[in-house]
Amino acid sequence: MKTDDLIRLLAADTQVREPLGPAIAVALGVGLAVCAVLLVFQVHLRHDLLTAILQPRVAFKIGVTAAVAVLAIVLLDRIGRPGVPVVGAGRLLLLPLAAVLIAVALELAMTPAASWGERLVGRNPGWCLVYIPVFAAVPLAAILTAMRRAAPESPTRAGAVAGLAAAGMAAAFYAWHCPDDSPLFLATWYVIASAAVTGVGALLGRRLLVW
Amino acid sequence: MSVAQSEEWSQWMRRAIGGDEIAYRTFLQSVTPHLRAIARRRCRAWGMPLSDAEDVVQDVLVTVHLKRGTWDPSRPIGPWLATIVRNRAVDLQRRRGGGGRIAVPLDDVLETLGVEPDDGADDLADAERLIDRLKDPARDIVRSISLGGAGVKETAARLQMTEGAVRVALHRALKTLAALYRSETT
């Protein structure tokens, strides 16, 4: 086949069947829906939600995890598009990290050292480690499926960011159930669970997002 | 590449994404000589026979085609195109056993996109063997449109298929061809 023949063939397939933006939007919709169902019907909202949500620790826990999800998704969309700079969007992810570090520092400054151990371990570190990956599974699968349409420079990195986005989404939902509100708990167990999901995302991305 | 050139390509591609087949073909035809210049330069640099260059050009074109949904029409197309070219170059070198860390600086590609286009298609390049590996009706559709120069409508009428079915089969066939280019170009 001569190149001119190939061009005729490509031009006949004019319609763009695999736009990236709508695919990511669908993946987010699926992920959010599954997380909401798991939260409401599986682990349930915390009973004292109405009063708890007003406490700064609870609001921070939910807000910072949601911020990670949003920033990771924004970064992911850029990563998926060749030639779009990603460094700035990547650096924005340092903001929630910095926020968590500041929250930890404030917690250490404002609470007695004797209570730190209890705040760190909380009531349910094991559940947190189990449920964040469980919540993240479907969002990660959906996001990776969408990202197969993308063209990331580094499939591994794209997979990692997909994992981080799924973990952020999962954590932002699980946080409505989780009774442990200390930033010490957040900075430990949420971070471990999210790192695991990010790692799985990187491994999958390396295989699935090659183009 | 010149700003004017990039802007012209961007406009064609915008119209192509809006469904303008003529604009899309114009875009692909205009880009091809530049891709050919890059491919030949790479082949020379890597000691590959020049006859492989046309396979590389076709691999890039198919990739541009399948990944055009990742281009944001509000951005210039130059950096997008250069990154696609680089990805294919790196992949090619990796498959040829380049191993280790592969350097294909983006600036080099961008620069090469701007050099003299190379119009002399290599008539030896022949992806016939790739088409033969498709299954019917995909093979028939691909032959009819590419080699026969028929339109989708004619092809659909001849094969007694709906136009939609022909279009879907064509798209799938192009994805298969993309995979074949990657396994064949070594």
Automatic annotation (TrEMBL), chain A:
Transmembrane region(s): 20-43, 58-76, 88-109, 129-146, 158-177, 183-205
Key word Transmembrane helix present: yes
Protein name (record): DUF1109 family protein
Signal sequence region: none
InterPro entries from the UniProt entry: NrsF
Keyword Transmembrane helix: yes
Keywords attached to this entry: Membrane, Transmembrane, Transmembrane helix
One Pfam assignment: NrsF
From TrEMBL, chain B:
Protein source organism: Siculibacillus lacustris
Start and end residues of each RNA polymerase sigma-70 region domain: 30-97
Alphabetical list of Gene3D superfamilies matching this protein: 1.10.1740.10, Winged helix-like DNA-binding domain superfamily/Winged helix DNA-binding domain
Domain RNA polymerase sigma factor 70 region 4 type: from-to ranges: 127-177
Entry's Gene Ontology BP terms: DNA-templated transcription initiation
Family statement: Belongs to the sigma-70 factor family. ECF subfamily.
InterPro entries from the UniProt entry: RNA_pol_sigma-70-like, RNA_pol_sigma-70_dom, RNA_pol_sigma70_r2, RNA_pol_sigma70_r4_t2, RNA_pol_sigma_r2, RNA_pol_sigma_r3/r4-like, WH-like_DNA-bd_sf
Protein name: Sigma-70 family RNA polymerase sigma factor
Keywords: DNA-binding, Sigma factor, Transcription, Transcription regulation
GO molecular function: DNA binding; sigma factor activity
